[in-house]
């Protein structure tokens, strides 16, 4: 049984990058490419454990571009996308049994697997509570803290820059999971003072399976040292592919953020019957959380797919995703708020405009009514 609808909590969306600033970021990235690649180098690629860097020269140049762009000392491209980047960074600095400070919230599922596999001892503090964070840092138990840039709980409100500053003052080094945030927010974790940012380039329209660790020289050197196998390298062609894709991302992400805000405003104004409330949230990727007036959330994604919506994510803003995504709430969000499962859907516009997103939602809700739940399209808000 669906039970009583659970109201959406207040959310604290991360700041986005205005379109004009996104254009400047695109230009800045291309300037970094020009500093590290000459002529034919950006059109040709090598392979394997090359003499000197121990990885393809093309890959090493691409890493230099990323370090330059993010204002870091070094960068490493790794296999395994964002999860692989997090695993590589944590494995470079922690040993089994080492304590690691994390936020008190459901841990992203693949990160939990990594932490379990590494055998680290996680200890939690509520990063939303400055006193709780200060107490944990003052204990002297931690050398490292791990912070997720996007929200683990829908009601999370901590400011990443402030958390990193508090850790730095206490002598605690920091790793930031920048998946779903990098290039969408004005500054990534490493730009805000973290020792490293870890993120997926697949989520930035890059090739499958490529991730990045961008940060301090000692940490990145250890990542390279651990990844000595030829089969583990990101090959030169993959590295070039990732850079070419990345140059298009800032503007795409800025437009997508604008569309999300427009959809939220129009739904709040009552444009689509059957919607009780809407929130913008960084529930993993920046998206709209739409609570319905009736418990049809579980069936709505399949109905929306009939009208062109993506039926499931591929990489959450991968190159394969063009149509808007209508999907269930994320697993970590439902761990924290299971009562939303029957009432709330997650919508990501991807490359679509607001008109298409609203049209698909309207038609899917109409179909839910036709299947027997007439009140699903009621304009009554609850």
Explain this structure.
The protein is of the alpha/beta class and 382 residues long. The protein is built from 12 helices and 11 strands. The longest helix has 20 residues, at 249-268. The mean pLDDT is 94.
Question: Could you outline the blueprint of secondary structure elements for this entry?
Answer:
Blueprint: H1 19-36, H2 57-69, E1 74-79, H3 81-93, E2 99-103, H4 109-118, E3 121-125, H5 130-138, E4 144-148, H6 160-169, E5 173-177, E6 196-200, E7 210-215, H7 217-226, H8 236-246, H9 249-268, E8 275-283, E9 285-292, H10 300-305, E10 325-327, H11 331-336, E11 344-348, H12 354-370
Parallel strand pairs: 2-3, 4-5, 5-6
Antiparallel strand pairs: 1-7, 6-7, 8-9, 9-11, 10-11
SSE order = HHEHEHEHEHEEEHHHEEHEHEH
Strand arrangement within the widest β-sheet reads 1-7-6-5-4
Largest sheet: 5 strands, mixed
Average per-residue pLDDT, rounded, comes to: 94
Describe the global form: globular
Number of E-state strands: 11
Unreliable stretches covering 5 or more consecutive residues: none
Radius of gyration: 22 Å
**Roughly how much helix do the residues carry, as a percent range?**
25-40%
């Amino acid at each position: 049984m669906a039970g009583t609808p659970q109201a959406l909590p207040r959310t604290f969306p991360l700041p986005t990058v205005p379109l004009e600033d996104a254009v400047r970021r695109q230009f800045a990235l291309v300037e970094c490419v020009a500093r590290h690649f000459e002529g034919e180098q950006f059109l040709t690629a090598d392979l394997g454990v090359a003499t000197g860097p121990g990885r393809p020269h093309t890959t090493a140049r691409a890493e230099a571009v990323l370090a330059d762009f993010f204002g870091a000392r070094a960068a490493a491209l790794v296999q395994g996308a964002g999860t692989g980047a997090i695993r590589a960074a944590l494995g470079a600095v922690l040993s089994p049994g080492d304590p690691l400070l994390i936020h008190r919230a459901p841990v992203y599922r693949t990160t939990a697997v990594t932490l379990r596999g590494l055998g680290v001892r996680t200890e939690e503090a509520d990063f939303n509570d400055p006193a709780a964070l200060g107490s944990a840092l003052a204990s002297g138990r931690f050398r490292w803290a791990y912070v997720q840039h996007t929200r683990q709980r829908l009601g999370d409100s901590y400011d990443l820059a402030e958390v990193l500053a508090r850790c730095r003052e206490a002598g605690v080094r920091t790793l930031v999971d920048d998946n779903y945030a990098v290039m969408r927010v004005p500054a990534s974790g490493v730009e805000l003072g973290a020792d490293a940012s870890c993120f997926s380039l697949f989520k930035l329209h890059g090739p499958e399976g490529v991730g990045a660790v961008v940060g301090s020289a000692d940490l990145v050197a250890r990542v390279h040292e651990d990844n000595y196998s030829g089969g583990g390298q990101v090959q030169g062609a993959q590295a070039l592919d990732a850079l070419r894709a990345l140059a298009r991302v800032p503007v795409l992400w800025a437009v997508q953020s604008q569309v999300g805000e427009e959809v939220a405003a129009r739904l709040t104004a009552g444009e689509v019957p059957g919607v009780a409330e809407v929130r913008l949230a960084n529930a993993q990727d920046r998206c709209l959380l739409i609570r319905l007036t009736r418990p049809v959330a579980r069936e709505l994604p399949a109905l929306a797919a009939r009208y062109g919506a993506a039926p499931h994510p591929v990489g959450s803003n991968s190159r394969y995703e063009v149509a808007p995504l209508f999907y269930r709430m994320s697993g970590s969000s439902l761990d924290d708020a299971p009562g939303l499962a029957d009432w709330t859907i997650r919508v990501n516009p991807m490359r679509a405009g607001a008109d298409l997103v609203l049209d698909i939602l309207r038609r899917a809700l109409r179909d839910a009514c036709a299947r027997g739940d007439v009140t699903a399209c009621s304009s009554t808000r609850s």
